[in-house]
Design brief:
It is built from 4 helices and 8 strands, in the order βαααββββββαβ. It is of the alpha+beta class. A 4-stranded antiparallel sheet has the order 1-2-3-4, covered by helices on one side. Strands 7-6-5-8 form a 4-stranded mixed sheet, with helices on one face. The two termini are about 35 Å apart.
């Protein structure tokens, strides 16, 4: 078999167009600015009404998420590289990097892939149903990755 090259499979149908990215970034910055404005100019209201902190926290977190989304940092994907897998299953959580020598076994299910990691728990990567066209290419790539890296894998069928 030949050497594996880096492949990235995005789990969304397509990337946002440039105008949408700019809108997300502007909206995020506006939310953060409004939250800061409220803290600075309405500090007396915040001291008397503690629930305003929840609103401010929400505005800041929503603003940060919008900026990250506009910058393309929230895209979900799976990437195969020589000797490792990179998984980003959740838009706000960090990526998970798995070295091929740490993988004991891979189980491929219809809508998920389970990685049994040596001396640790397993990691389950779920595809979801929003972009089903990518599932079979990803499963084929993972099977190829397992073959190239001498990892045992099994294709399982779930019955209802």
């Amino acid at each position: 078999m030949s050497e594996m090259e880096k492949k990235v499979f995005y789990l969304e149908s397509k990337e946002n167009p440039g105008l949408a990215k700019i809108f997300h970034i502007v909206l995020g910055i506006a939310c953060i600015v409004i939250a800061i404005y409220w803290v600075i100019f309405n500090i007396q209201s915040i001291k008397t009404d503690g629930t305003l902190w929840i609103t401010i926290l929400f505005l800041v977190l929503f603003g940060v998420y919008q900026v990250l989304d506009g910058a393309g940092k929230t895209r979900k994907y799976i990437s195969t590289e020589p000797g490792k897998l990179i998984l980003k299953q959740h838009s706000v959580l960090p990526v998970v990097k798995i070295k091929s020598e740490d993988i004991e076994k891979i189980e491929i299910f219809p809508l998920s892939v389970s990685f049994k990691i040596r001396n640790r728990n397993k990691i389950v990567f779920r595809f979801g149903l929003s972009y089903i066209e990518i599932i079979d290419p990803v499963k084929n790539e993972i099977a190829g990755f397992a073959g190239l890296n001498h990892i045992s894998y099994e294709i399982k069928v779930e019955e209802l």
